[in-house]
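This section describes the prediction task in plain terms. A model, or a person checking by hand, is given the sequence of a single protein chain and must write out its three-dimensional structure as a string of tokens. No templates, partner chains or ligands are provided. The sample shown here is typical of the held-out split.
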Amino acid sequence: MITDRTIFKYTLEVYREADGYRAISRRWKRKKNLVDHKTQFTSPDKTGLRTQAYPPTRQGKIFLNSDFGSDDNI
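The expected answer:
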């Protein structure tokens, strides 16, 4: 839920790269639309990416509960 009093918005993006996977977690200042904090997590495989200590945001919880690590989702 987004309200006028919400200061930050959060994003979590996962990329497949030549040497493995990269997840980028960002915290944005909503009114200025600027990145306030950015953290990158890398891993050579999907299993390692799922074991990272992501920020306790809704996006992180959705990612950890997803079927990203299954073999069907390449």
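For orientation: The chain is about 15% helix and 40% strand.
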